[in-house]
Design a protein that fits this description.
The complex is a heterodimer of chains A (about 290) and B (about 525). Chain A is mainly alpha-helical and about 290 residues long. Among the domains of chain A are: about 75-170 and about 265-290, Cytochrome Bc1 Complex, Chain D, domain 2; about 190-260, Cytochrome Bc1 Complex, Chain D, domain 2, CATH 1.10.760. Chain A has helices spanning about 30-50, 75-95, 100-105, 105-125, 125-130, 155-160, 190-200, 210-220, 225, 250-260, 270-275, 275-290, and strands spanning about 15-20, 25. In chain A, helix 7 crosses helix 8. Chain A is elongated. The model of chain A has no long low-confidence stretch (mean pLDDT about 90). By secondary structure, chain B is α+β, with helices and mostly antiparallel strands. Chain B has 3 domains: about 30-240, no CATH class; about 250-370, no CATH class; about 405-524, Immunoglobulins (Immunoglobulin-like, Sandwich), CATH 2.60.40.10. Chain B has helices spanning about 40-60, 95-115, 120-125, 125-145, 145-155, 160-185, 190-200, 205-225, 225-230, 235-240, 255, 265-270, 280-285, 305-320, 330-340, 380-400, and strands spanning about 75-80, 85, 90, 250, 325-330, 405-410, 415-420, 425-435, 440-445, 455, 465-470, 475-485, 495-505, 510-520. In chain B, strands 6, 7, 8, 10 and 12 form a 5-stranded antiparallel beta sheet that branches. In chain B, strands 11-9-13-14 form a 4-stranded antiparallel beta sheet, with no helix packed on it. In chain B, a hairpin with a 5-residue loop joins strand 13 and strand 14 (about 510-520). Chain B is elongated. The chains are: A mainly alpha (about 290), B alpha+beta (about 525).
Chain lengths: ~290, ~525
């Protein structure tokens, strides 16, 4: 090899003998600091492999080596989550011990409960009530001031906790409107009349003669639950009929269909799944939407 | 003339004349041992160093009373609460344009200074220069002046050498720690942080910052010094665009110095022409970047003017007028060179004939150009001054007229509008009221429409119709969820404009937001 040594005239450095288009590669040594850095990283990597999980497949199914510090990214996440829980613990405990009216009156507790309730709502409630709690046909709008089962704080808590027509919940809200048409209680003519009467109660366009005739039908069949003037009854979950809010729509067809064979909504009772404290947080959020009473 | 004066020639060579000058891209670093300089510029530099370091180290300790609701530190960058305090000024993050404006002013100011006196920033006030100067002073106090330092550097290792070198580095590190330490006090209450820092209770970021700044100060000021200016700093490259031929730069006036001669008398006796330069190398010995100013304008020259001091001292000793090296413009220099060089061509000055500029009895011939204060005021500098003042006046105007009360409004979007059981329609708004004063205020929030509208606020019972009185904590933002409801008989489908107004009844400060009330077609 020494026989092939060729020294570049300009720089006085050996060439490697590689040549491209008359340009020869100089055999400059690596800078010393660079080389030492490389060696240092190699030493570092040995220590790293001992301390941290590094070597996969040491035994089948065992995953990577654990490393003597036992560090893992999942444990980090677990620690962070429990630290976050611990940070919230004081407030969560405080809310658990308070009644909903007290929570709504306490600025700190309410702020915390509303934020916590908002995230619970996104996970558990938006599927039916919508992302803005604005509901839809058959699913109540929680922003407005019309409440089937009551909009007072304790009523809202009870509705969320027990659910509506949830057969698995002992504390469920329950009521049933008869299928007046389908079960032959009223004939088509009377249903038409009562439909007109209901629209009259709500100040909607109606046939005056039919509405007057429907008044009797209403008094005999409907007033016991919905009230004489259609003011509703929150104890029975009977919707108010003389207002502007209509769960299944205010068109004559929609009202007729509902009298004929009513559809009933169902909501699971959340107490079993979420527990008391979270139910109160959800209630605080719902009340913060502006419709509470 | 004092005929007995003996000026020793300094044994020194400019560091930028070796390998690099011959076209090599790599040059082995040569240590520079700057000699102590004495004179007017050295004094000025001490004063500037004392002032700038004084400002840097002491500012965080100045107290400024802002009442019970704001910190009492005169200059404080409160990152956690996102507030910046500067004496009587308090800046919120959205007012950061003040800082941007100040930075623009600093930039234009730098252009102005550079166009007038060249790299004065580099030579006098750049932190790199100030700290390097301080570190060289420490070195000189511990190890002695230039010759003693060179001797010590060449001497074999001994207890004495080890002691002196260690002491130098120890003092450097103490200064570096103080430098890094002072920085963190701008970001927290200084006395509290100082106590926490020494009792090891300060946050990790404080120790980390001090460690990094200690390392950089020690490295840049103690070890790398002039190499930072020559190799790392972009400003020497940029400044060429800022200079013109009317800028004052440190100049060796070869029209009066050349031909230089160490043995002036012998040369004169031999009938040779001699200039004022006695080739004593004093200017090279004091240079902190180790160059020879007599080689003309160089990238390495930071215009610290110490060579002027050194040369003036020599000129005083040999009884010649000062200013062989001095601040001069290129225009004056060229003018004088044209007089001194009888056979100048377009490309080369050629031979310098000292007889053409020197009078025989001492002094200079008429017609030479010397410093004239008029060069401070020329189109270029006037434009810079104009820009600088314009931005300054603009910022001042903004500062004096800025809002200390603001309202930001976000219309609820999901859902936009809600129909209530009586047929009225409600819109929701998140309103953020910003009380940017360090005192509690009660802000009057009101709406001027839409027709028939009334207002309710979550968590507040004392709302009357369209007006609410909202207490806001000092220096805080208060977010409110406000509902605006319009009764059914007054509903107008589509968008209705109305104004949300916040007012401080005491100071009559006010801000408003043009909002929209939305009624979807199917809710009318």
């Amino acid at each position: 090899m020494s026989g092939n040594r060729e020294i570049d005239q300009v720089s006085g450095v050996d060439t490697t003998g590689h040549e491209w288009d008359g340009i020869k590669e100089l055999n400059n040594p690596l800078p010393r600091w660079w080389l030492w850095t490389l060696y240092a990283t190699i030493v570092w990597s040995v220590g790293y492999m001992v301390v941290y999980p590094a070597i996969p497949g040491l035994s089948p199914g065992a995953g990577a080596s654990k490393g003597i510090w036992g560090w893992s990214s999942r444990a980090d996440v677990r620690n962070e989550l429990s630290a976050a829980d611990a940070a919230k613990q004081a407030m969560t405990d405080k809310i658990a011990g308070m009644d909903i009216n007290a929570i709504m009156a306490d600025n700190d507790a309410r702020t915390f409960a509303v934020s916590a309730g908002a995230s619970l709502f996104k996970v558990n409630c938006v599927q039916c009530h919508g992302s803005g709690a604005q509901g839809g046909p058959g699913f109540p709008n929680l922003n407005d001031d019309s409440w089937m089962w009551g909009g007072k704080p304790e009523q809202v808590v009870q509705t969320i906790a027990g659910g509506v027509r949830d057969t698995t919940s002992a504390e469920t809200r329950d009521s049933l409107m008869p299928a007046f048409g389908k079960d032959g209680i009223l004939d088509a003519e009377k249903i038409g009349q009562v439909t007109n009467h209901v629209r009259q109660l709500a100040n909607l366009e109606h046939d005056a003669a039919a509405a007057t005739a429907g008044a009797t039908v209403f008094a005999e069949n409907c007033a016991s639950c919905h009230g004489e003037k259609g003011e509703g009854n929150q104890d029975l979950g009977a919707p108010q009929l003389n207002d502007a809010i209509w769960l299944f729509g205010d068109s004559p067809e929609a009202i007729t269909a509902q009298v004929n064979a009513p559809r009933h909504g169902m909501m699971p009772g959340w107490k079993a799944k979420l527990g008391d404290a979270k139910v109160k947080q959800l209630a605080a959020y719902v009340l913060s939407l502006g419709g509470g009473q | 003339m004092n005929t007995h004066t003996i000026i020793d020639k300094q044994d020194v060579k400019a560091v930028n004349t070796g390998a690099k000058a011959q076209g090599n891209l790599y040059a082995v670093h040569q240590k520079v041992f700057p000699k102590r300089a004495e004179g007017a510029f050295r004094k000025l530099k001490w004063i500037i160093m004392a002032v700038t370091l004084g400002i840097y180290y002491l500012t965080p300790w100045i107290r400024w009373d802002r009442g019970p609701h704001a910190p009492d530190q005169a200059v404080l960058l409160d990152m956690a609460n996102r507030r910046f305090y500067f004496f009587f000024i308090e800046i919120w993050p959205q007012e950061f344009y003040f800082v941007a404006g100040l930075l623009v002013m600093a930039g234009v100011g730098l252009f102005l200074i550079t166009s007038v006196v060249g790299r004065a920033w580099c030579g006098y006030s750049c932190p790199q220069t100030v700290w390097t100067d301080l570190f060289i002073k420490v070195e000189e106090l511990v190890q002695g002046d230039r010759n003693a330092r060179i001797k010590l550097d060449k001497a074999p290792w001994s207890v004495r050498k080890l002691g002196l070198i260690s002491l130098t580095h120890l003092i450097w590190i103490v200064i570096s720690v103080a430098t890094g330490g002072a920085w963190i006090f701008y970001f927290a209450d200084a006395p509290t942080l100082f106590w926490n820092f020494i009792t090891l209770k300060a946050p990790f970021v404080a120790y980390g910052t001090v460690a990094v700044l200690t390392a950089t100060t020690y490295l840049l000021g103690g070890l790398m010094r002039e190499q930072v200016c020559i190799y790392m700093c972009p400003w020497p490259r940029i400044q060429a665009a800022m200079l013109d031929e009317d800028s004052l730069v440190v100049t060796y006036n070869d029209w009066r110095g050349e031909p230089r001669s160490a043995g002036t008398k012998k040369a004169a006796a031999a009938g040779l022409a001699v200039g004022d330069c006695i080739d004593c190398n004093a200017c090279v010995a004091v240079c902190p970047t180790g160059i020879d100013i007599r080689n003309g304008q160089q990238l390495e020259c930071i215009t610290c003017a110490l060579c002027i001091d050194a040369c003036n001292g020599i000129m005083d000793k040999i009884g010649k007028p000062r200013g062989l090296i001095g601040y001069s413009t290129l225009r004056d220099y060229n003018h004088n060179m044209n007089i001194a060089c009888p056979d100048a061509t377009d490309d080369v000055w050629g031979r310098i004939d000292p007889a053409l500029v020197h009078k025989t009895g001492g002094g200079f011939v008429d017609g030479l150009k010397h410093f004239d204060a008029k060069i401070f005021f020329r189109i270029r500098t006037l434009i810079y001054m104009g820009m600088w003042s314009l931005i300054g006046v603009g910022l001042l105007f903004l500062l004096l007229t800025r809002d200390r009360l603001e309202v930001n409004v976000q219309h609820d979007r999901n859902p936009v509008a809600i129909k209530l059981s009586d047929g009225s329609v409600r819109n929701g708004y998140t309103m953020k009221i910003l009380n940017m004063m360090p005192e509690p205020r009660t802000i009057t929030l009101s709406i001027d429409g839409p027709p028939g509208a009334s207002m309710t606020i979550t968590g507040m019972d004392e709302v009357i119709g369209r007006i609410a009185h909202v207490p806001v904590e000092p220096d805080k933002l208060r977010a409110l969820h406000v509902f605006v409801t319009v009764p059914p008989q007054l509903l107008q489908a589509g968008s209705t404009n109305f104004k949300i107004v916040v007012t401080d009844e005491q100071s009559f400060e006010s801000d408003s937001y043009q909002a929209i009330f939305e009624v979807p077609e199917n809710m009318k």
